[in-house]
Design brief:
With 372 residues, this protein is α+β, with helices and mostly antiparallel strands. Helices cover 34% and strands 28% of the residues. Among the domains are: 32 residues, no CATH class; 193 residues, Thrombin, subunit H, CATH 2.40.10.120. It has a 6-stranded antiparallel β-barrel. It has a 6-stranded antiparallel barrel with strand order 11-14-15-18-17-16. A two-stranded antiparallel sheet has the order 1-2. The longest helix has 57 residues.
Length: 372
């Protein structure tokens, strides 16, 4: 019997076996016990192995390093070995041949492209010739239309003779003189002798004296006791009725009169004013410049002055022009000259024809009354 100690729980117990696998009666776990001889052999082998391992490792490392150095030297010796002259010559010859072949190939490519371009040009020319032939054939087979007759030439529009128009319009423009020495202008709007002027020209007068040109000359004829038949203070317009038409001014049995244009004016449109501004000779004497003609343009067709619709014009106007006509280049009335700026030059104002036509519409019976 041998005394044994459990390697797991430390229990001491007696066992018939002194070596090999034993079981602890307390923890019931198995454990191994070597014999003394076996343990000694195992220890010697482990010690021998442990003492020889570093030397073996160092020996293998040294052998590997020496092999690497030897292989490197052999590779360098092969790479740095001289090349003989024949090899160099052969390489140069081959390089020269390759360059020549490349140059020949490039020249061939250029020639092929040029040939392709020429073929395309020739094809386009052939297609064009075919198309022209087909069109000529179609035209020859198509029925021929009769030749078109030339359009008659339109007669050229005659140029507007402004001087002639002004001369004709003067026959319908009048000079108005009041018994108080006032002077203004006006124009005839009906063949029975109704004259349009400004209200501030006739003021509160019941009758005025009228001067107008004779039919065949620029000499004036005096018509006395022309009656003021209508006034409108807000629109600054008045109507004067002339006496029976004198033979010296009559045209087809009535007074010459101006047409009124209803169409609106536009900025920049050329315009003409005919009136009788006064020239002061002295403090008591005024020289009337009758039938003065001035020209300009429409500066603004829709100006508002003191709540009145006005046409602004660059036509030079002065006292004495009031009541006279503002005309277009065809001789149509487009406004009634009414005022001017007292602080600026070439700034005049005229009542538009829409205001004038509205005023005349109230006296339609007077305008349509036959001439005496």
């Amino acid at each position: 019997m041998a005394d044994v100690t459990c390697k797991h729980c430390g229990e001491h117990f007696s066992s018939a076996k002194s070596a090999g696998t034993l079981f602890c009666p307390k923890c019931l776990k198995a454990f191994w016990i070597d014999t003394p001889d076996h343990a000694g052999q195992k220890g010697h082998a482990a010690a021998a192995l442990h003492s020889g391992t570093p030397y073996l490792t160092i020996t293998l490392a040294v052998c590997g390093f020496l092999f690497f150095i030897a292989a490197t030297l052999v590779y360098q010796s092969k790479c740095s070995s001289p090349v003989d002259a024949n090899t160099i010559s052969l390489r140069e010859a081959v390089g020269t041949q390759i360059q020549q072949l490349e140059s020949e190939l490039e020249n061939e490519t250029i020639q092929l492209k040029d040939l392709e371009r020429r073929l395309q040009d020739q094809k386009r020319r052939n297609d064009r010739l075919v198309f022209d032939d087909q069109r000529a054939t179609a035209n020859a087979l198509a029925p021929q239309a009769p030749p078109e007759e030339p359009e008659p030439e339109k007669p050229a529009e005659a140029a507007v003779d402004v001087t002639k128009i002004i001369s004709e319009c003067m026959k319908s423009v009048v000079v108005i003189r009041g018994s108080d020495g006032s002077v203004g202008s006006g124009f005839v709007v009906s063949r029975n002798g109704v004259v349009v002027t400004n209200r501030h020209v006739v003021r509160n007068l019941k009758s005025v004296t009228i001067e107008m040109q004779r039919r065949e000359s620029k000499d004036t004829l005096v018509l006395r006791d022309a009656q003021v038949i209508a006034v409108n203070n807000s629109e600054d317009l008045a109507l004067v009725k002339l006496p029976a038409v004198p033979a010296a001014v009559a045209v087809k049995g009535g007074y010459p009169h101006l047409p009124i244009r209803a169409a609106a004016t536009v900025t920049g449109e050329p315009v003409i004013a005919i009136g009788s501004p006064g020239l002061m000779r002295s403090r008591t004497e005024i020289m009337v410049l009758d039938y003065t003609v001035t020209r300009g343009i429409i500066s603004n067709p829709q100006r508002t002055i003191e709540d009145k619709a006005m046409i602004q014009t660059s036509v030079p106007v002065n006292p004495g022009n009031s009541g006279g006509p503002l005309l277009d280049e065809q001789g149509n009335v487009i406004g009634v000259v009414t005022a001017k700026s007292m602080v600026a030059e070439a700034v005049g104002f005229a009542l538009p024809t829409r205001t004038l036509l509205s005023f005349l519409a109230r006296y339609k019976d007077v305008l349509e009354k036959p001439a005496p």
